[in-house]
Amino acid sequence: MTRYLAVDTECTGVAIHAGDKPYYVSSCDDEGNLKCWRFPVDEKTRLVLPPEKNLIEIQEYLDAYDRVVFHNAKFDIRSLRSIGLYVNDRAIEDTLLASHIHTNNGTHKLKDLSKLHLDIPSDDEEGMLKCIARARTLAKKLGWKIAKADRAENEGEPWMKVDAWVPGQLYEHLVRRGEQPPDEAWATCLEAYGTRDAERTMALWLLYKEWLQDRDCTGFECGICENGQVDTGAPTPNGSYYTQSCPYCNGYGHTKWEAYRAQVDVIPALIGMEDRGISLLPKRLEKNIQHYQSRIESLTESMRDELQEPEFNPRSGPQLQKVLFEKLELPPVKATKTGYSTDKAVLYHLFANHRNKFLEHLLAFRKCGTTCGYLESYADHLYEDRLRSSFNPTGTDTTRLSSSNPNLQNVGKGEEFD
């Protein structure tokens, strides 16, 4: 009989490659047995200090089960690896992927799914966030290093969760000093919240496993093959490619379970891609950013000179509306709630029918701004001269990969980079 263990981690941030690590690991097996481990965090540096005996115990626990279940396995596995804990690549299950395969255009957040399918409320998270907010205020006064929102951003998740270690550790700190903690709930809020997530993950897994293995659960357009066939990559004389039976469905088409298994098999490769990153030359990047910033400033000055308005701001919608449709007397194309539209399509339409230097410079200004924005996002996510983007298998309805932080799949057309 296959044994399952659900595991959840709470970390000091979402940038594992930049040094964020888990300070709490919780688990729930398929018989409802719960275990958790909380590690101390250095209050001044946010470095996690896991005791060696805890790491040995957790690794033995992971190895004792046939399959390990996560909700977002890619993140939790990288989190565990950061403190020397490993899960067999062939023993992974993921309720985030299972949810996406089962219903590809709905919500995939753990709390939302648990409320939808299991009728489990999210009041534990609400209580924890209140504890964190109050504890953070006091910890900051004591000189503790508190997380910043930009470092903790995690695609819609409450960013303060990365400081869930603060209430419990602050409670113990105050007790050692002989002081009364402001709230007794601080002592247990992390355990109550973290363990509940492991329970949610296991309950969802047992549900999705049954649903996805239903042989009538078919018709998922997964992109793995077309009518049971995949390209071999070998060209035919007529310019197409030879095909062979899909290795996942043997040419018979996919059930949702087969599509899920194919996606889970890709998780180790995605982790490797994110760990390796993409090489980039920092000096060349900075040179290009400066080039586009200088070009933006030059175009702005040109537009101000043409209008004879030294305070004109091309990023201001109201100012742009006034210039285009009042001062230059161009015909409005599309109305919005706040006036006439100045979006990309409108500007190109106006330029095609009323060519002038101002419109030419405005279009170039916007194109340079977009390009500069991409480059600056690369600089913000550069670690050790490599870009560390996240590749998301649930980012599209079709299971095509998307990427974020930064988005590497939506590079604007325009001037070539140097």
Ordered list of secondary-structure elements with their pairings:
Elements: E1 4-11, E2 22-29, E3 34-38, H1 52-63, E4 67-70, H2 73-81, E5 92-94, H3 95-102, H4 110-118, H5 123-141, H6 149-152, H7 165-176, H8 189-212, E6 229-235, E7 241-245, H9 256-276, E8 278-279, H10 282-307, H11 317-327, E9 335-336, E10 339-340, H12 344-353, H13 357-380, E11 382-383, E12 386-387, E13 390-392, E14 402-404
Parallel strand pairs: 1-4, 4-5
Antiparallel strand pairs: 1-2, 2-3, 6-7, 8-12, 9-10, 11-12, 13-14
Concise description?
The chain is α+β, with helices and mostly antiparallel strands and 418 residues long.
Q: What do these coordinates show?
A:
It is a single chain. Strand 2 (22-29) and strand 3 form a beta hairpin. The chain has helices at residues 52-63, 73-81, 95-102, 110-118, 123-141, 149-152, 165-176, 189-212, 256-276, 282-307, 317-327, 344-353, 357-380; strands spanning 4-11, 22-29, 34-38, 67-70, 92-94, 229-235, 241-245, 278-279, 335-336, 339-340, 382-383, 386-387, 390-392, 402-404. With 418 residues, the chain is α+β, with helices and mostly antiparallel strands. The protein contains 13 helices and 14 strands. The protein has a 5-stranded mixed beta sheet. Strands 8-12-11 form a 3-stranded antiparallel beta sheet.
